[in-house]
Structure formats: structure tokens, C-alpha cells
Design brief:
The protein has 380 residues and is an alpha/beta fold. It has 8 helices and 12 strands.
């Protein structure tokens, strides 16, 4: 069965809303994130006019293509393939009102090298459709395909957009740069958690994105006692460093984690439960050795599974935007159907999160966490 191309909507019981938030503090870049959350029920297919574009602007499109070394002459064809997709969610939709009132458990998500806040929309939409608020950060460490800061002119009124380009890959040893970046990323994670706390407390947030969303709707709606980290590749490393630094994070799901940026001294000091979901094509012995050092801690729930027939980008939206012929050739799609692959990954993630965030009334197949299934390997 072939997969239909495009960003897939969440399959859970909730319709999903999205909104962007950018703040000016606590450092010069502040926090930039997209929130995915349950919104009021509707037929999402009938609300296409309210879907935001998957690529927010031309700068992000150019950044993506530069990152994967697409020649300029091929930009038009690439835009036809990936530049017109939209995210099946209600832009600035109202926050779901529930009776009796319930709080949303929180997932903070970190993108990989060359990604940005919308790159993992399929995963974030699924989690939000299951009742989570997902805060997908856009990092300003030079690892995003593109990002920007909104400042103000001296008159205090006129907004000025300052673009932050992606840093080139260093020659020779990558560790010094990537280690510096992963610590900035973890700082940004902490700032984002602070911002989510302020939003939940009903603080007046000056959102530089100037959306129509009233953030006060989130007051007392976030369950900040149930917060998990999630990330892909470099974002997986970010989630692990953040676990070490921030006890507000109760557990983490690591999608194809890239371990090089992490200080080795941190490995035995990370105390929270962790699920590693690996693709078949990405890992090499050195990376697995590092993962196994974290897996080795006794008395803490650590799981690792591998999804057969997958590639590194099977966790990202790109795998849904290219057909089988072209997608396998540019290595964004594995031999396993992308829908099957993401369903397995999401099922494992949800089962792990329900267990370690102590979410009542949820029932997911935990056998997948032990690598039981046609397309799974326990470990690697």
C-alpha cells in the first residue's frame, strides 16, 4: 500500500491547533517555539483555509535546500515537491475546553541539525491529537536550516527581522562546535520551560509573532508535573543534556539520537527513564557504544528499539513529502512504508510516556517497547 504524500493529520481523538510564540528574553534571542495543542472539535479536512504552510517562509525553503546541497537550478522542482504543503491543524485555534477541566501533559521537542520548529509536524500533531501540548522549539545556535529574531527599532514600535543563518560544518573535529551548540540548545530548553510555566500561570506574554492567539487561554491548562523531552538526532542529544540539567523533565524519547555532542561525564548522571527509538540505517558502532553507556544504568527504565527498513529522516516530515522512487534516492525514505514506520514510533513513544508520566486512563501496547513486532528489533 502506498502512502499519500503530504503532512499527515493526527489520528487521536482531538483536533489540533497550532500557534507560534517568540519572546525577547531572557537573553538576546529569547524563545521561539510552535505550540501544538488540542483545539475545539471540527472536521479538519473542511478547514483547509485555516492550515498554516509547512515551510513558514522563503528563507526556510532556501535553508533546507542549501543544507541538503540541492543545486540552485533544481530549486523550482524542489519547490513543486515540498514547497506547497500545509500542516493539517487550525492556526491560532482556540484551546480545547473540557468538562471537568483537565490539564495537558507537556512534551518539549528539539529538532535535528538542519531542522526547525515545523520539521517534525507529523510527530507533534500525533502527540497533540492524543491530548498533549507539544512545544517545538526553533534553536538559535546555528543548527536550524534558518531562523530569525524579531527586534524593534529605536522607536520601540517598528519590528525588525534579523535572520540567523545555519553555521557551516567545521573541518576536522566537530565536537567543540557541537558541544557548545548542545549546551546553548539545553539553555533554550530551560528558557522554554520557564516560558511555559509563565503561560500556565497567566502571565502577560508579549508575543513578537503578533498572532491572533490569546495565550491566556492556556492559563492553568498545562500539567507541568508531567513534562517529557523528545528530540531527533541533534535534538536527541539536546534532550539528554536537558535531562541532566533540568529535573522538571521526567523522562525522554530519543529518536535516532546523535551522541557525539554530549559530554561523556554526563552519561552516568542522567537519572530519568529514556526510550531510544533507532532507525536501521543511521547508527554506527561508536554511536551505539555511547547509547549503551546510558542504557547500562541499573534501577532506571531504559529501552532501545530499532525499526527495520527505516532511514534517519524516517522520523521527520520529509519522508512523507517524497514518493518512493525519489525519496529513497535522496535518502529521506526507507523501504518500510513511512506511515507504518511512524505509527510504530508513535505507538512506542506514547506507551513510554503514559507509563512514566503516570497518565491515568490511557492504554497503549507496551509490547512494542520490548521490540515485539514484525518490523522491530530489540536493541540494535
Amino acid at each position: 500500500m502506498g502512502s499519500r504524500l503530504g503532512i499527515r493529520a493526527g489520528t487521536g481523538p482531538h483536533t489540533v491547533g497550532v500557534t507560534d510564540v517568540m519572546t525577547a528574553g531572557p537573553d538576546k534571542h529569547g524563545v521561539f517555539m510552535r505550540l501544538f495543542y488540542p483545539t475545539e472539535p471540527c472536521d479538519i479536512r473542511q478547514r483547509r483555509r485555516d492550515w498554516p504552510p509547512w515551510i513558514p517562509s522563503q528563507q526556510y525553503f532556501d535553508g533546507y535546500l542549501s543544507f541538503i546541497n540541492v543545486p540552485r537550478w533544481a530549486y523550482f522542482a524542489a519547490r513543486c515537491i515540498i514547497g506547497t504543503h500545509k500542516v493539517p491543524a487550525i492556526l491560532d485555534g482556540p484551546v480545547l475546553k473540557q468538562k471537568p477541566p483537565q490539564k495537558f501533559p507537556v512534551i518539549v521537542f528539539s529538532h535535528g541539525l538542519g531542522g526547525q520548529r515545523t520539521t517534525y509536524s507529523v510527530v507533534c500533531l500525533e502527540m497533540a491529537s492524543r491530548g498533549y501540548l507539544v512545544a517545538s522549539i526553533e534553536h538559535r545556535d546555528g543548527s536550524a536550516s534558518a531562523t530569525h529574531v524579531i527586534k524593534q527599532e529605536d522607536d520601540g514600535k517598528t519590528p525588525v527581522v534579523e535572520w540567523v543563518p545555519m553555521l557551516p560544518k567545521p573541518e576536522g573535529d566537530e565536537y567543540p562546535l557541537r558541544n557548545k551548540q548542545v549546551h546553548q540548545r539545553a539553555d533554550e530548553f530551560g528558557h522554554m520551560l520557564d516560558l511555559l510555566t509563565a503561560i500556565d500561570q497567566g502571565s502577560n506574554i508579549h508575543n513578537l509573532c503578533q498572532t491572533s492567539m490569546d495565550l491566556s487561554q492556556f492559563e492553568n491548562k498545562l500539567d507541568l508535573d508531567r513534562v517529557a523531552a523528545m528530540g531527533h538526532s541533534f535534538g536527541g542529544a539536546t534532550a539528554l543534556v536537558s535531562l541532566y540539567r533540568d529535573t522538571r523533565l521526567r523522562c525522554a524519547v530519543i529518536l535516532d539520537g546523535w551522541m557525539l555532542p554530549i559530554d561523556k561525564e554526563m552519561y552516568p548522571l542522567i537519572s530519568q527513564p529514556i526510550l531510544f527509538i533507532n532507525t536501521e540505517a543511521f547508527h554506527w558502532p561508536g554511536n551505539i557504544v555511547r547509547i549503551n553507556r546510558i542504557m547500562a544504568m541499573e534501577g532506571v527504565d531504559r529501552k532501545m528499539i530499532t525499526i527495520k527498513g527505516t532511514v534517519h529522516q524516517s522520523a521527520a516530515d520529509f519522508t512523507f513529502l517524497f514518493g518512493k522512487f525519489f525519496g529513497t534516492r535522496v535518502q529521506v525514505r526507507g523501504v518500510l512504508d513511512p506511515v507504518v514506520a511512524i505509527d510504530i514510533s508513535n505507538e512506542a513513544s506514547l506507551a513510554f510516556l503514559v507509563k512514566h508520566l503516570d497518565i491515568p486512563g490511557s492504554d497503549y501496547n507496551t509490547d512494542v517497547l520490548d521490540g515485539e513486532g514484525e518490523h522491530l528489533i530489540k536493541g540494535t
